[in-house]
Design a protein that fits this description.
By secondary structure, the chain is mostly beta strands. It contains no helices and 22 strands. A hairpin with a 4-residue loop joins strand 9 and strand 10. It is globular. The protein starts with a strand and ends with a strand. The model has no long low-confidence stretch (mean pLDDT 95).
Length: 230
């Protein structure tokens, strides 16, 4: 079991005793560690409030660290790791950034203010990122599509607020901050809305969850909704 709160600790599931504790202490963030393979190594991500680290899963040894500055030192989105573990997209309220990992160090490929995920990370489909870019209660917050390799924007649709997204088969379910659940086709040609339903009110920051054909949604007041998908 892995916990990340400024330092990362691995616990034995049978007795809860520590197996290892990472050596460096950083400003904590809210992101969940992501596990991925890089060659023969199993690696953990640690996305703190002031930087991003890669940690050897077996020993807790830090492999690489990359400074990352954002407003309020708030990082809540889980890193998005490419299939072979070479490229990693990280994002927060101020900017998104694509990093390259060569097995020993992290380097920046590009930075952009056109994909600033705040509540959950975007989706990677066909070499493109689809996600929410923007700030809380801003009419300029939008659902947008950019290229993964260079950060170039293809299209965007405004008025989503601090929304969140969930990939379901070939469709993206987007929950707007105001409680609209929107089905969007991940098209490279432009924004294609397939359907929309108002399901909640107040503030919706929690990403949707999926179990079978049921999607679960909640708002900041604790009201939850379960919808049956076709």
């Amino acid at each position: 079991m892995i916990f990340d709160a400024g330092r990362v600790v691995a616990l034995n599931l049978k007795d809860g005793k520590p197996i290892w504790l990472s050596g460096n202490t950083y400003h904590p963030g809210y992101a969940t560690p992501v596990i991925f393979q890089s060659g023969a190594d199993t690696i953990l991500t640690s996305f703190g409030g002031k930087g991003f680290s890669l940690i050897h899963a077996a020993s807790g040894r830090e492999i690489a660290h990359y400074p990352f500055k954002t407003q309020y030192n708030m990082t809540a989105t889980d890193p998005l790791v490419s299939e072979i573990g070479e490229y990693i997209f990280i994002s927060a309220i101020s900017q998104g950034e694509l990093l390259r990992f060569d097995g020993t160090k992290l380097t920046s490929v590009w930075q952009s203010k056109r994909m600033r995920n705040s509540m959950n990370i975007c989706a990677l489909r066909d070499g493109h990122l689809f996600g929410i870019d923007g700030k809380h209660k801003s009419s300029r917050s939008r659902f947008t599509c950019i290229r993964f390799n260079d950060g170039e924007e293809l299209w965007s649709k405004e008025n989503y607020g601090y929304g969140t997204i969930l990939t379901v088969d070939d469709i993206l379910l987007v929950l707007s901050e105001s409680g609209d659940l929107v089905a969007v086709e991940p098209s490279l040609e432009g924004y294609r809305e397939l359907g929309r339903k108002s399901v909640l009110d107040s503030i919706c920051w929690t990403p949707p969850s999926l179990s079978g054909k049921r999607v679960f949604l909640r708002n900041d007041m604790g009201r939850a909704v379960c919808l049956q998908l076709p």
